Amino acid sequence: MTSAPHICVFYSKGRTFTDVLSHVKARQPNARLCALVPAGYPVSEAGWPTLDEVVQTGLPRYSWRNPLSFMRLVRQIRRPRYDAFVIAFDSPRLRVLSALSGATRLYCAMDGQLLPLHGSISGTLADVLIRSIRGRLTYAYIWLIVRLLHVSSPDKP
Questions:
Q1: pLDDT tens for residues 112-131?
Q2: Does residue 58 sit within a domain?
Q3: I need a labelling partner for 45 at 20 to 30 A (CA). Which of 59, 132, 134, 143 fits?
Q4: CA torsion, points 151, 153, 156, 157, in degrees to nearest 10?
Q5: Residue 46 pLDDT
Q6: Within a domain: residue 127?
């Protein structure tokens, strides 16, 4: 007999966290749910019935510029050895964080589906780099069009 899966749901600002928790609980009814919440962001009372535990991170926000605190967060995520790590948004930062968790990586879509995340950390970082370069090239192209393209007004020939 296997034990119930231990699933971590990472808190993200912007989307209703209780919706993500209820979707995960609906898909995995006997799972032990853990909410990983940044300091200063309490889980609302509506989310408590679906949770088995709430773990607060040390800081309200993490950055690549502070690698020591980021590594503490990664150790905090890896220590309990979660069976699955769920993120609410499919962003490159959250993809990297979920890949560092060592657990099965899932993304909770807006319709409540739990979709698997694929790809390695290096692939995600390459995707971030490609998006950044593409965005800068698009901005430069638009800037050149605005600066160099002469548009006459309808009043003047």
A1: 899 998 888 888 888 888 98
A2: yes
A3: 59
A4: 50
A5: 67
A6: yes
Asked if 109 and 142 sit in the same domain, the reply is no
**Residue 1: band (very low, low, confident or very high) from pLDDT cuts 50, 70, 90:** very low
Structural domain range at position 129: 119-157
CA 39 vs CA 4, 14, 56, 59: distances in Å = 27, 16, 6, 5
Q: What tens digit of pLDDT does each residue of 3-13 get? A: 889 999 998 77
Give domain status of residue 1, yes or no: no
- What is the spatial distance between Cα 71 and Cα 108, in angstroms, rounded to a whole number? 25
CA distances from 1 to 4, 33, 41, 80, 88 (A): 10, 19, 37, 21, 31
From the CB of residue 103, how many other CB atoms can be counted at a distance below 10 Å?
21
Give me 9's structure tokens: 């749901």
pTM over 0.85: no
Tally the domains of the chain: 2
Compute CA distances 147 → 115, 132, 135, 138, whole Å.
Answer: 44, 22, 18, 14
Contact 125, 119 (CB under 8 A): no
Tell me which amino acid residue 68 is. Answer: L
